[in-house]
């Protein structure tokens, strides 16, 4: 029985490595594919790797669009922000709570690659789940919603140029927020 468990565990490890390991471009992800960039994006968020995050976003073109339901309100959230605001907010978030207190999951099961020769590509309705634990206040910010992302090919690799946050229908009394709302808390 133990032999079969060991074989099953080895097969599972091999299978898992197939989903994240690619052509060995140094970081274990093939950034010449949209799926490779999205997998790296998830790891960057789960590891708090700001150096890699900066490279995943197009410094000149990146725009994050908040869900219209989040704009204004008590947190004075703008309709969108650019690269500098994104990097500042995410850096502040990781400095405040630590990477170990951020958990990001994306459902990438429906993501397809663009056809050969395409230089700009948009993926839509990727379901996400984000949990940010603020230990000092014993608060967990949960976010379950959807995102759209647009990618542009630069020097043979894909970078993120636009990101739209899309909230689910909100029910009264449920303390659910969006990824954008969480980031906005750490803008300053």
Write the topology of this structure:
Elements: H1 2-20, H2 34-47, H3 50-56, E1 63-65, E2 80-82, H4 83-97, E3 102-106, E4 120-134, E5 139-154, E6 157-167, H5 179-184
Parallel strand pairs: 1-6
Antiparallel strand pairs: 1-2, 3-4, 4-5, 5-6
Helix pairs in contact: 2-3
Mind explaining what this structure looks like?
The chain is of the alpha+beta class. It has 2 domains: 1-28, no CATH class; 31-184, Nuclear Transport Factor 2, Chain: A (Roll). Helix content is 32%, strand content 28%. It has 5 helices and 6 strands; from the N terminus they run αααββαββββα. A 6-stranded mixed beta sheet has the order 2-1-6-5-4-3. A hairpin with a 4-residue loop joins strand 4 (120-134) and strand 5 (139-154). The longest helix is centred in the N-terminal third of the chain and has 19 residues, at 2-20. The protein is globular. The model is unreliable at 1-26 (pLDDT under 50).
Name its key features:
single chain; 188 residues; alpha+beta; Nuclear Transport Factor 2, Chain: A; 2 domains; six-stranded mixed beta sheet; disordered N terminus
Can you name the CATH architecture of the largest domain?
Answer: Roll
- Structural category: alpha+beta
The CATH topology of the largest domain: Nuclear Transport Factor 2, Chain: A
Mean pLDDT: 85
> Main beta sheet, described?
6 strands, mixed
Write down the CATH class of the largest domain. Answer: Alpha Beta
> Which value, in Å, is the CA radius of gyration?
18 Å
Low-confidence segments: 1-26
- State the separation between the terminal residues, measured CA to CA: 56 Å
Q: Care to count the β-strands?
A: 6
Shape descriptor = globular
- Taken as a percent bin, the fraction of beta residues is 25-35%
Overall number of structural domains: 2
- Number of alpha- plus pi-helical segments: 5
Helix proportion of residues, in percent? 25-40%
The SSE string, one letter per element, is HHHEEHEEEEH
How do the strands line up in the largest sheet? 2-1-6-5-4-3
């Amino acid at each position: 029985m133990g032999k079969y468990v060991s074989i099953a565990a080895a097969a599972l490890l091999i299978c898992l490595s197939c989903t994240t390991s690619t052509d060995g471009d140094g970081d274990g992800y093939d950034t010449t594919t949209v799926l490779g960039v999205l997998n790296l994006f998830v790891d960057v968020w789960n590891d708090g790797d700001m150096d890699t995050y900066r490279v995943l976003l197009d410094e000149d073109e990146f725009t994050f669009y908040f869900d219209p339901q989040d704009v204004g309100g008590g947190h004075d959230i703008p309709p969108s922000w650019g690269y500098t605001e994104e990097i500042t907010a995410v850096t502040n978030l990781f400095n405040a709570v630590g990477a170990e207190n951020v958990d990001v999951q994306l459902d990438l099961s429906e993501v397809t690659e663009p056809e050969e020769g395409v230089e700009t590509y948009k993926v839509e309705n990727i379901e996400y789940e984000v949990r940010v634990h603020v230990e000092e206040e014993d608060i967990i910010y949960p976010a379950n919603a959807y995102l759209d992302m647009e990618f542009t090919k630069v020097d043979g690799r894909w970078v993120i140029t636009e990101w739209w946050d899309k909230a689910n229908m909100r029910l009264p009394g449920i303390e659910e927020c969006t990824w954008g709302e969480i980031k906005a808390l750490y803008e300053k």
